[in-house]
Design a protein that fits this description.
Number of helices: 2
Structural class: alpha+beta
Strand content: 5-15%
Number of domains: 1
Number of strands: 2
Bound molecules: zinc ion
Protein name: HNH endonuclease
Strand order of the largest sheet: 1-2
Keywords: Endonuclease, Hydrolase, Nuclease, Plasmid
Order of helices and strands: HEEH
Largest sheet: 2 strands, antiparallel
GO molecular function, one term: endonuclease activity
Length: 96
Amino acid sequence: MGYPKHWKELARDIKEKADWRCQKCGRVCLRPGEKPPDNIKPRAYNLQVHHHNMIPTDNRLENLIPVCSSCHLSYHRGGRGNISVGQLSLFDISQF
Ligand SMILES: [Zn+2]
Ligand SMILES: [Zn+2]
């Protein structure tokens, strides 16, 4: 089991559909290649795709939620277990 080859495209698709908006806090994130204004922290405006049921191999559309990096971390910090940033899958937090 692993990530499908088209994960990148899939994630991109989901972000496009969401208008690059975090589904939790509504923050509009930076699109690829978009330059952040000087006064913001670009990392916080990085849209990522979260697996709702925490199963990274379950890539059904209803399981995939675009969220900004800070909401993403809060999903993983709260709820089940004490997963740390380092334990997040590289794909899960892959940028753009
Ligand atoms: Zn958010
Ligand atoms: Zn996640």
